[in-house]
Every structure is written in structure tokens, then in C-alpha cells.
Amino acid sequence: MPRVNRTAVLTLLIVSSSVFLLFQLYYYRKYVSQSGPFILSRTGHLTANDLQWQAVKKFLGLARRFGLPLFLADTAALRLLSHDALRERDRLVREPHCSFLCTGRPITSFALHANLWKYEPGFLLAAEQKGFELLELRGEDPRLASLDNLSGEEIPLHFLFRLYGHVIQVVFLYERSGNYLWHGELRFKSNADRSFAPFKLLDYGRHAGSYDRPELVLTVLDGLDVRIPRNVTRFLAEQRRARFLECRYRDARNFLQLYPEDSSPEAVDFRRKVKSLLHSAARILAGINVPFWLSSGTCLGWFRQCSVISYSRDVDIGIFVQDFRSDIIAAFRDAGLSLKHKFGKVEDSLELSFVSDDVKLDVFFFYEDGDVVWNGGTQARSGRKFKYVFPRFSLCWAELLELKVRVPCETLDYVTANYGAAWNVPVRSWDWKSSPSNVQENGVWPPAEWEELIQVH
Amino acid sequence: METWTPNPRAKPFIPRQQRSLYLTWKYKLTNKRTIRRFCQAGAVLFLLITVIVNIKLILDTRRVADEDAAAQAYEDTIPNMETPRRPAKGRKILDIEVYSSRSKVYVAVDGTTVLEDDMPEQGRGIHVIVLNQATGHVMAKRIFDTYSPHEDDAMILLLNMVTRGRVLIFTIKDEGTFHLKEAAKNLLKSLGSQVSLNLSWRDMWTLVVKKGGQVYGERHSKSPALSTWGDPVLLKTEVQLTASEEAECHWAATELNKRRKLFCSKVEGYGSICSCKDPAPIEFNPDPLPNNNILNVPVAVIAGNRPNYLYRMLRSLLSAHGVNPQMITVFIDGYYEEPMDVVELFGLKGVQHTPISIKNARVSQHYKASLTATFNLHPEANYAIVLEEDLDISIDFFSFLSQTLHLLDEDDSLYCISAWNDQGYEHTAEDPALLYRVESMPGLGWVLKKSLYKDELEPKWPTPEKLWDWDMWMRMPEQRKGRECIIPDVSRSYHFGIIGLNMNGYFHEVYFKKHRFNTVPNVQLRNVDSLKQDAYEVEIQNLLKEAEVLDHTKNPCEDSFLPDSEGKTYIMYIQMETETDTSTWTELAKCLHVWDLDVRGYHRGLWRLFRKRNHVLVVAVPISPYSVTKPASVTPIHLEPPPKEEGAPVEQM
């Protein structure tokens, strides 16, 4: 071999081996790392987990191709990701190569910001070609339902994709006025296939739900690129209490036909003030992590007319007494709401009132007692105590005046307890000591403690 | 070397090797050839390893693929969804009844009345119905009042647009031949009519025909005398439906064409949208804007039942640079199918609104519902663009708004940004880069701030029982509160609607037809920030200083009132004692052929417009604060309205 050519041969060899090496790297990234359990399950036997992983992988591949910004919302998978589970994992190594997405459940849920979804038949078609079976669940657009007589097209609420017997749920999250995200209930049309998926196991769709906009991060789970909420623990906590109640717009319209809304400038002005007061109360209480709900007249206004009762003069909210914090008053004061009076004590009949812009905010603390819940009232002049008794309730989210607020889920029971069966008839002359149907006399504060227990500012 | 033979008795070579190991290496390393050898060996080794690893990988992948195949064997295979072609079933027959008379026409297809008109004083002329030859659906329903001029041309246009093979039904109510010219009669003849050439005054006539095909029936009754009508005629005939394949074009199977196909199977009369060979586009892909501040601003298109208008409007809207179709919602007042078909053709969102109240109040309630819905659907939006279905949208509409939008946030004295200059006619508007502030609310393509709507307008919007125009209400001082709107000199929208609640042909001809409309793309607006309240006053003061006073002794209506110059700024003073003393302006507006129905487009008693390519400032003396610039020698122009006569009551826009 002539000597001159050796250099050439050498160069050639180096180049080709480098190319091989690069190819190898690329190949490794593209195929080996992503095939996860397959390449490693040498038994030749596919477990349910492998199928789940495979279905999720194919689905995410599709979603990426069509630029759908899905994020993982599966409670089981996210729980594995939350901090507690991560600590435990060191001791207990589960399946080594699919440890997050393979939850062993027949469903994996993802969520999608609906305004990023342009109706893309191409995506559904491609999914079908990949072997996915699809169940689309659509429903009315609640953002139009609040308006008289508007009807848009039905919006997609949930998509279910099935592959290898594994179901992938895509929950559509819609932006609502009040700065929150909403998803609808999953309900069947009469002709839908009810055996498509084990619906009882779905994380989402039993009720409508509402969420704060989660911050997302892109991460790699089991070799797949997935977006997840940055604060997994908070998302999971939110998910457990996400149930959302739509206002009964149709009934409210009927009510307003019978009793038209007062549109005098004073009423308009009052509604504006209530809105701003409610917004600041919600902001203050969220700041110190105290959950509250609409109570009394404000709750009735939401339930009966999806709005504020213009002659009600104040805003009423309820807080469970176990959520009481001593810095509540300071928090309100710092936000510019002055304390008007404070009745009772944390152990009994606590009630705070604040004033902002001529509108009073009454904060009632609720006490649990067996199968009832009650709050107290105090007459400043005489020291008489009153008790308002409600059946037990849980809390749901609702929207009022462009604000996401809690209301008792069993709203009808709550309102009926407070206002009797005739809650649907406006009563303008209202006496808080005798009109409510759940009011009970509760003795008198001992005069020695008046100074402490009846503070009027 | 070749001749060398080993000596069996020779000593082994070991000592030397041992002795000079270090030296050997040193020697070897200093020898270039050896280095090369060494590298070579390394490279070969490297290559070998690579090859082996790769082969292993390939083998692994092979196995995965096998397992994949095995996995697929597990699940139920998806059945091939290809539906078998339906066997050509017995073709259906449609029974058609067509009635023509002086006071009533009707058309029934298979017993269903698809047209019935027995209203007195209405529906005169030739009624035309287009049926789908495969389904029997009504695809278009029009009246051409061919008693009046030019209507026959419109009919010719429609008949030419209709796809070959469609079933056409004609019937005359009252009178339909007075202005039915030869061209139209010949076209009818070519369609297969036997009598079209003989149709004359007050004849009754019905015809059912397939375009480019057979005649299913025709009946005609002559009017015996000028003062009487022909006897009513009733035509009963049968139409054989064809297979649907024959009624469709074979466009490429794309998503767009799917929409097109659906649309074209339902309606007729949209020109080349449904042409088989070279259909008009339904997707426009206009250029994006470089700095689009308006991309996420929702667009509400307010529509009624004027689907042809809506079609024209959406076409221009979707062709405008920087449009974001995702943000467009069309709000249709009423449950009309055809406007919804148009919306779906373009792949947009449509919302239907059950009508509340009547006339102007109905429009007003529709506006309120549409605006509320727009902000509900886009809770994150701070503005909404409001458009109507009878507007053409300028190619730089979004660019115009994108450049001005920030003013709404930065200047509390602003009420809206509008694309429309009430006084911007072809002879009075010149400069596409120029903006004004005006105290009126022009509408016709405008931006509404959410806070204005939610905090002020929505809570006190006129209730259904108040028969108010929404725009008149918005212009009232209680709502406007002295705030102003930004408008361009050259409008970015064009009002083409002729039929409408407040519209008729004459009105359109006089006030809208000659309106100037910008067709230049990407206009860079001049000094946008000088439109803010204080800056604008400075701007005006500069203009006033620079302006030459016109000769007030001449007649302002004459062309010679202005010198034959170009690009100069002139000023004139007109008399206006109080807010309500509008006679001089109105007379001036009349002779300038600008908007004269009410006083619009001024800023503190100052109008700005162009005449003969010069900028003219018109100052109302004494109510305008700019009156102080008037030289003492100049007497403000005063014009008296001509003596009152029974003027045509023109409705307000």
C-alpha cells in the first residue's frame, strides 16, 4: 500500500467512525430511550403497564405532532410525583422503567387549555389511523348559557381515546370570567357507548370543576416529554375540592321576569360596590388561606337570580370557626376595610363586620354541632344572642359577579333553611332577629362580658 | 526478508526487548510512522466496537418490532371503516306545485310549502327557487322585482352562478315583465322556456326546469288587457332526483373542501365558491403583522339574515393582514340557516340569538347579548373589536388598530377607536397615515374597551321595551361623558349594505357609496402618540398657526373658494352660536357632499377635512375655543337653509 494513501485512509476511518458514533447517539436517543419497558422486558410478555405506557406514548407523540399543549392531570400519576411519594420511592422501587405513568389504572387523564385547541379534525383522524377509538363528549357552552337566548355550537368537554384497552381522557379547560378554568361534566348522549370506558374510575367529569390556572413545567417522565403542573401537591389538593356549580340561569331568568331587576342608578351603583367589596374580601381571605362561602342574602342572590339582591344592603359570607385566624382583622384593615363591629368570641357566636365604601361585609363564623351547623347573632343594644341552624353541607365553587367563590353545594337546603320554602318570593322588609326560618333564641351575654363581646366601632 | 530462514539454534530475543522497553517506546513515539500505525489501530478498534454496538442495537430493535407486532395481535383490530358504496337505490321523485297569480304565489315540493307569498304590496316580480337535484333541498330563494329596472341583471347574475344540473323554479307575482329585458328573456329561453320571449305586461307564468337539462313544465296565461292580469296558473309536475354523486364536484379530499362540499350542497348563489373546476378560495392566509398587538383581541361580527353580505364581509375580514380567525365569533340575530352555513364555510364560530323585541330595540338587544357573550367567551380580553355584516374591512384594518390600541389604555379621555371617518369621502379624505380625535362615536368597525362596557355600558344598556338605537344611545352625553374617539382620515371600513333596517338604495347612494376606503397595506400611522389629549391640543395649535385664512367673501360652496394649491393648510370660520345652531354647518356639509344628517366628526367645534388636496380646518365661531385665532377682520360664514319643503324623511344611520 503506498504510504501517501494511509493518511487518507486514516481520515476516512475517523470520519466514518465519528459518523457512526453520532448515528449511534441519535439512535439511542430516538429509539432506545423511548422504548422503555419494551426493550427491557425480555420475557416477551406484555403487562398492563406496558400497554398503558405504549398507549400514552403513542398519544403524546400525536399530541406533539399537532402541537397540542396537553398537561398531565392524572391524579394517580401526579400523586406518584408529589414529594411524599418521591421520598418513599428510594426505598420501594416499583417497575424500574415506567414508574410514574404506569399507574396500573385503566385510565390516564390529561387536560388541555381549550383556547389552544382549534378544532383540528386532522388530529382526530390521525388518532384513528394510529388505532385509537374515540368518544367525543360535547355540551352546552356555559359562557353563553348565562345570556338570554344565545345558542352557540356545542363545545368539546371531554375526549376519550382508547388503545389496547387503555383509555386516555382529555379534559378541556375553558377560561371563564372570574379568572379561572372550568371543565364540564361528562354526560352521555342517549346514543353513546356506555361501556367505552370504566366511567366510575374517571378522575374528571363526575361533576363540573373549576381550577386556578396552573403553572406548567415540561419534564421527562419514563422517557416521555410531558407537561405537568409545577406545584403538584397544590393541584391535587385543588382537584379534590374542584366541584363547580353552574348558576341556574334559566330559573333566574324566570324569576327576573316576575320581579324585574332594579335598574335605578342607586341599584346599579350598589351592585358595583358589592362587586368590588366581594372581590377584595376574596383576595384578602385567599391571601391568608381562609376558605369562605357566600351566606344568607348574598347566597340567596346567587341562587335565585345569579346576581346581587339590590335592596339587601350588605354582603354576607361564612367561615368555619376552625379556619379562624387571629390576623383576619388585621388583614382586612391592611386592605382598607375598617372593622365596624365584633360580636361574640371564638368559642361562641363570633361575628365580624367590616365596612368599605358604605357597604357592610358581615363575616359569620360557623360552628359544627352533631349533624347541624350554626352561626350566631348578637343584638348590640340588649346583648341578646340568636342562633341560626343549618343542615350540614359541603362546599362547591360557583361564579358570582365575575368572581370564583364557594357556596354550599346543597344550596337549596341551605337557602330553604334560612329563608323557608318561600325563598323564591322577594321580601323587602327583613328583620334578622325574627324573619329567618332557622332563627332560635340563644340567651343573653352576661353583662360583665359585654365590653369584650360586643364591640362597636 | 523473503529469503530469511529462522535459525533454530538462535537465542530467543528476549533480553533486548526487556532491556530497551523504555527506549523502544520512546523511539516508537518519536517515530511518526509508528504514531500513525498506532492511530490506525485505534481507529480500527473504534470502528469495530461501533459496528458491534450498532449491530446489537439493530438486533434489539428487531426484537422490539416483533414484540410490537405481537402486541398488536392482542387487541381487536379496528375494522376497515371504508363504507361500501350504497347500491343505487330507487331514485326518488319530487312532486312540485307552482302557483302564479296577481296576489299570491306559492311553491310546494312534495307537499311542503317552500314559498308562500300572499302579502299585499309585497313580493312583486319573479320568484326564483333553486333546488338540489339530488336531495330536493331549497338552495336559494330570491325575488327579482323585474317591474323595476336593473333587477333583471341581478337575476341573470344568479342564473349564471347556479351550478348546472340544479332544478330552477320560476313564478311571477303581480307583474314581472316591465323591465325584463331581451338578455334575460333570451337566457330564460336558453334554459328551455318556450314562452319567455312572449312574456309581457301582467302575464302569469310558471316554469320548472333543470339547468342545462330537461324542462319539467311551463305554464303561461296572457293578460287580456292592460288593466287586467292574466288568470292564475298552477303547474304540477314531477322531478326525478338524481344520484348524489352526479350533483357533486370532485374536489381534492381536504378538510377545506369538506366544508366547501357541505356548503355547496346546501346553498346556491355564491359565485365561484362552488365551481367544480376552479373554485374560489375559502382560506386566505394573509400576511401576519410584525408587531401584532391585536392578535388576541376578540372580534365580534354582528349579523342578521343577510348571508350574501356576511359572505362578502367575512371574505374581506379573513383577507386582512394580521387577522386571527380563532378570535372571530359571528353573532347571528335569529335562527337563520344560511348565515350559519356561511360562517361554517369559513370554519368560524357562530352563535345564534333568539330575537328579543322589535326593530331598533331588537338590534340593540342583539348588540348587548353579543358584546356580553364576547367578553364571556374571552374573559382574558381587555378589548373587543365590533364589526357588522355589511362592512368591507380594509387590508390594514388590524395594522391600524394594532398601532393605536395602546392609546385606549394610556388616555382616559378616549371612548373608542373607530375605523370609520364620517366625513371621509373620496373628495374629502387624503392621508391614510393621518388620525383625528372626534367627539362623536362613528361605529362601523370599532374597538370597545372591556372596562367601559362592563362598568358603564352593560349595567344601564337600554332595556328591550325602549325602542332605542344602540349607537344613538352610546352617543348620548350621559354615556359618552365628553370622551372622544380616534378615527383615521381614510376609513378602514366600507359600508356596502343597501338593504337593512335603516337603509335603502337611495340613502346608500348619497351617503355611503362615495366613501373613501383604504386599500394600501401596512400603512405606518403618523405620530400616534400625538393623539393623546394634551399632545393633540399642541398639534392643533400648530396647525392653527400654520393655517392660511381663506377668503371669506367668496361662496364656500364654490370650488374656487380654495386656491389651486396642493398640500397647504387653510382655515375657515363658520357661524355657530350655540350647540344647537347647526344650520351653517349643515348647509356647508350639503354643498361639500359630506354627512349632513346630523353634526358629526368634530373636535371642540373644529372639523378637519381635505379639499382639493389641501387640509382645511373649519372652526365654529364662537362656540369653538379655537375661535380666538380668528382675525377681527373676518366675518364668519353664515348660510341659511333653503325654505322648508316636504323633504324626504331620511332615517338616521
UniProtKB/TrEMBL annotation, chain A:
Main location: membrane
Keyword annotations of the record: Membrane, Transmembrane, Transmembrane helix
Domain of life: Eukaryota
Pfam families: FKTN_N
Protein topology in the membrane: Single-pass membrane protein
Subcellular location: Membrane
Spans through the membrane: 7-28
InterPro entries, sorted: FKTN/MNN4/W02B3.4-1, FKTN_N
Domain named Ribitol-5-phosphate transferase FKTN N-terminal: residues: 1-275
A single cellular component GO annotation: Golgi membrane
Protein name, entry field: Fukutin
UniProtKB/TrEMBL annotation, chain B:
Co-factor binding comment: The manganese ion interacts primarily with the substrate UDP-N-acetylglucosamine.
Task performed by this protein: Participates in O-mannosyl glycosylation by catalyzing the addition of N-acetylglucosamine to O-linked mannose on glycoproteins. Catalyzes the synthesis of the GlcNAc(beta1-2)Man(alpha1-)O-Ser/Thr moiety on alpha-dystroglycan and other O-mannosylated proteins, providing the necessary basis for the addition of further carbohydrate moieties. Is specific for alpha linked terminal mannose.
Keyword terms of this UniProt record: Disulfide bond, Glycosyltransferase, Golgi apparatus, Lectin, Manganese, Membrane, Metal-binding, Phosphoprotein, Signal-anchor, Transferase, Transmembrane, Transmembrane helix
Cited Pfam families: GNT-I, ILEI
Segments crossing the lipid bilayer: 38-59
Class of the enzyme per the UniProt entry, highest EC level: transferase
Catalytic reaction equation(s): 3-O-(alpha-D-mannosyl)-L-threonyl-[protein] + UDP-N-acetyl-alpha-D-glucosamine = 3-O-(N-acetyl-beta-D-glucosaminyl-(1->2)-alpha-D-mannosyl)-L-threonyl-[protein] + UDP + H(+)
Pathway it works in: Protein modification; protein glycosylation
Organism domain of life: Eukaryota
GO cellular component: Golgi membrane
Record GO terms (molecular function): beta-1,3-galactosyl-O-glycosyl-glycoprotein beta-1,3-N-acetylglucosaminyltransferase activity; carbohydrate binding; manganese ion binding
Enzyme Commission number(s) of this protein: 2.4.1.-
Cofactor: Mn(2+)
Domain characteristics, as noted in the entry: The stem domain mediates specific interaction with beta-linked N-acetylglucosamine moieties of O-glycosylated proteins. It also interacts with its product, N-acetyl-beta-D-glucosaminyl-(1->2)-O-alpha-D-mannosylprotein.
Taxon lineage: Eukaryota, Metazoa, Chordata, Craniata, Vertebrata
Family note: Belongs to the glycosyltransferase 13 family.
Gene Ontology biological-process entries: protein O-linked glycosylation via N-acetyl-galactosamine
Keyword Membrane part of the UniProt annotation: yes
Protein name (Swiss-Prot/TrEMBL): Protein O-linked-mannose beta-1,2-N-acetylglucosaminyltransferase
Location in or out of the cell: Golgi apparatus membrane
Quaternary structure, from the entry: Interacts with DAG1 (via O-linked mannose moiety). Interacts (via transmembrane domain) with FKTN; the interaction is direct and is required for normal location in Golgi membranes.
